[in-house]
Amino acid sequence: MMPKIVMFVSNPYLPDPRVEKEARTLADAGHDILIIARNSRPEFPENEIASYCKIRRVTIPIPEKITMYSFLRYYIKYMKLSRKMSREFEPDIVHCHDLYTLPIGIGLGKPLIYDSHENYSGLHFPKGGVKARLTDAAERLLVRFSDAVITVSEDLGQKYPRKKVAVVMNCPMHFKILASDSNTIREKYGIPRDAFVAVYQGGLTAHRSLEMIVSNFASRGAEMIPGFKILVCGKGNIEPELRKRAASNVIFTGHLPSEQLFSIMAASDIGLILFEDSPNNRVGLPNKLFEYMAIGIPVLASNLPTMARVIGAEKIGITIDPEDSLKVFDALKLLHADVSGRERMGDYGVRAFKERYNWEIESKKLLAVYERLI
Question: Can you list the domains of the chain with their CATH numbers?
């Protein structure tokens, strides 16, 4: 009988890229996978079957008015329904993605993996304070009940008991990197073949300097570089405000399937990761870093410690303080002018992806965690 794994995610799973890679890897290794997702909107089906897993969604409307009492009622109902679905599946191992699902897994009496995607106190309370300390304390308490902890970077892993931690980075799969016709992509979005194009792909959420990118960075960039365009790929809660503030040379593509997204990145000249300085961003290694690397475009990124170490060691881009506008535009001008330098950085990125930063390598670390628990 195949070992059975239940994964809990706190989103509707449409899917989530990291969770999908892990689930596919485990399915290929012979595991039976059920993903239990949290859903607040009725348009997503409650039951779904993918080629590599089954998906069940706990559909509960979010309270119109969020208070401590209404949130607790909502969460307790979500937790009870999720545990009921899990017990019906009878898993051998429980895998909780994100802090929000960890209390659900603790009550199931099975080997428990905590997959920490973020520094949660830093994500929600970037200025620190009492709420951040309480979040850290709650996480430390809950982690005691886990048998293993998976994180996205060595720096984030330092928050957790060393003997439990395995670092599994958010690197792309080889098969996801597809050849594309850059001119066709540019024609689709009305971009001239000789235009200099920067791309941002990912969530349209706070603390990523997106307001600056679509307004001041875009407009001043166009003044310095005739025909300069910015492609913004993704969706998120600040998208309406970004669209209102965006300069005329910014193009929003919305959410795209992976294949189309990689084609757009391949049609661009540089990739942007100008995240703001925050406790969460300081320890992160975002998907987009490795995807830009795999595609072979140089990176213009914030000089945040964890990310800057990788970019500097691999020589794949330029890191700057995104709040220093002089350095931001100096770096943009340099990347535009130095065509051979861009090509060299792109080549270094492809080589680093093939040799060190791909899912084929990271998946072995994931499987090693499971082999220890089964």
Answer: 4-171+359-373 (3.40.50.2000), 174-355 (3.40.50.2000)
Q: In this structure, what is the dihedral angle of CA atoms 45, 49, 53, 58, given to the nearest 10 degrees? A: 20
Give the type of residue at 371.
E
Question: How many whole angstroms from its chain centre is CA 284?
Answer: 9
361/354 Cα distance (integer angstroms)? 10
8 A C-beta contact, residue 213 and residue 194: no
Full 3-state SS string of 180-223 = CCHHHHHHHCCCCCCCCEEEEECCCCCCCCHHHHHHHHHHHHHH
From residue 338, how far is each of 58, 91, 163, 183, 186 by CA, in Å? 51, 55, 46, 21, 21
CB contact at 8 A, 307 and 285: yes
Global pTM reads 0.92
Whether 342 shows a pLDDT value over 60: the answer reads yes
Bridge partner residues of 94 (DSSP): 6, 112
Bridge partners of 95, per DSSP, are 7, 113
Which range is least confidently modeled, 25-34, 74-83, 168-177, 340-349? 168-177
Cross-strand bridge partners of residue 64 = none
Is-contact 78 86, C-beta < 8 A? no
Residue whose entry in the numeric block shows the structure tokens 């307790």: 76
With CA atoms as reference, report the closest residue to 5 among 83, 112, 161: 112
| Mean pLDDT for the chain overall | 94
Question: Residue 139 has what pLDDT?
Answer: 97
Q: Strand, helix or coil at 148?
A: strand
Residues 367/29, Cβ–Cβ less than 8 Å: yes
Beta strands in the chain (DSSP E): 4-9, 32-39, 47-49, 54-59, 93-97, 112-116, 148-151, 165-167, 197-201, 229-233, 250-254, 270-273, 299-302, 317-320
Residues 6+ apart with CB under 8 A from 75: none
| Distance separating alpha carbons of residues 165 and 369, to the nearest angstrom | 9
d(CA 136, CA 120): 8
Are 311 and 342 contacting, i.e. CB atoms less than 8 angstroms apart? no
